[in-house]
Design a protein that fits this description.
Elements (H helix, E strand, L loop, with lengths): L1 E6 L7 H15 L5 E4 L10 H12 L3 E4 L11 H7 L17 E7 L1 H7 L8 E6 H5 L4 E7 L2 E2 L3 E2 L4 H4 L5 H14 L1 H4 L6 H13 L5 E10 L5 E9 L2 H15 L7 E7 L8 H4 L1 H4 L5 E10 L10 H10 L4 H10 L8 H11 L10
Parallel strand pairs: 2-3, 2-6, 6-9, 11-12
Antiparallel strand pairs: 1-10, 4-5, 7-8, 9-10
Length: 362
């Protein structure tokens, strides 16, 4: 069901517009006594999810019991980042998601389905994992807040990805990312239908349909002066709300070039991009537009590590970014590079598997 929708390529939603739209949707939901909000972390600062979380707090006050940033594999947010992103939200409401220890497996997607969505390339089963507080917290409203934007693993970010990946566990995150990498980034970027999305939709339909989940989705674009503006706000509890947001995001977040680009310079905001794990989006999101043998220059003044997760950082330092053949050879020869660490391999594959790019659909 759609509780609120507003947006177009030319729409500019003010903070007041966001508040009015959000509150009109929450009014329709009726009285709630135990609410949890699952927003993104500081790496999605420009999603406006921080402001929306503050609005949700002002609406529910004492009924808002938990705020659980969807960290995925990222590090916990320090107070400095919480102050920047979630102004006015009491610190005692924040919970930290530990992707290695804080999850429960709520169901398993069979290998036959995985084989079907990956065209027979993979046939392992997939565990649907969620943070314990999301699944077992006894909340009468779970608000998943975030931005819909093109994504290199799932096609379009957010919706149920915010829960199953943002508050997921090691096997769920690792295996899902590998599915996207094996299928091929160029085939799924900007698509609402992808193998990973099909995987998460299966989990939503079969394992979480009883949960009171409502999605609050923004679409962010740029005006003529290149300033970030809110182009859309969509609130609902099923896939339709995601499709509406994704349709608009494709229009305002995807740039189609007449010819491939020979040189691209990307600047990574140091307040957001501190690891190659996140900063590699500069590669993911430009490679489809790059000319063969083109030059990509990444300026990353805040870079300090390969990954916020120390084990992933160690593995990247040990094996390096050296492409798929080298990486898969090491998988055969080193027990530590097994399915549990497959998300590292995904990082290698997405960046370095294709030295030549088919620009027919760029």
């Amino acid at each position: 069901m759609i509780y609120f929708k507003s947006g177009s390529e030319n729409t500019v939603l003010s903070q007041k517009d966001l508040e009015d739209g959000l509150y009109s949707a929450l009014d329709k939901l009726g009285v709630r006594k135990k609410v949890i909000v699952v927003p993104p972390d500081i790496t999605r600062y420009h999603s406006r999810a921080g402001e929306l979380t503050g609005m949700i707090y002002r609406y529910y006050r004492d009924a808002l019991k938990d705020v659980l940033p969807a960290l995925g594999t990222h590090s916990p947010m320090p107070d400095h980042d919480l102050n920047i992103m979630y102004k006015g939200v009491p610190k005692e409401l924040f919970r930290v998601h530990n992707w290695r220890t804080d999850v429960v497996t709520i169901g398993t997607v069979p290998g036959e389905f995985v084989s079907e969505i990956t065209e027979g390339k993979l046939n392992y089963s997939w565990p649907a994992q969620l943070n314990k507080q999301v699944f077992n917290g006894g909340h009468d409203l779970i608000l998943s807040v975030g931005q819909v934007v093109p994504h290199e693993v799932i096609g379009m970010a957010n919706y149920n990805k915010n829960l199953f990946i943002g508050t997921g566990g090691p096997e769920g995150i690792n295996k899902s990312h590998f599915i996207g990498a094996v299928f091929g980034m160029e085939r799924l970027m900007g698509k609402t239908n992808s193998p990973v999305r099909s995987l998460l939709n299966y989990a939503s339909a079969n394992f979480t349909s009883h949960l009171p989940i409502v999605y609050v989705l923004t679409v962010i674009g740029r005006d003529e002066g290149c300033k970030l503006v809110v182009r859309g706000l969509y609130i609902g509890d099923d896939e339709e709300v995601f499709k509406l947001a994704a349709e608009l995001s494709l229009k305002v977040n995807f740039t189609i070039f007449d010819v491939p680009l020979k040189k691209v310079i990307v600047y990574l905001d140091p307040s957001e991009f501190k690891s190659t794990w996140v900063g590699n989006k500069s590669i993911y999101r430009t490679r489809m537009a790059m000319a063969n043998d083109g030059e990509l220059i990444v300026l990353a003044p805040g870079l300090k590590e390969f990954s916020e997760d120390k084990e992933i950082d160690r593995l990247i330092r040990k094996y390096g970014y050296r492409g798929t053949p080298y990486t898969l050879k090491n998988v055969e020869e080193n027990d530590e590079l097994i399915i549990g660490n497959i998300v590292v391999l995904t990082c290698f594959i997405l960046q370095y598997d294709c030295q030549k790019t088919d620009h027919s659909d760029t």
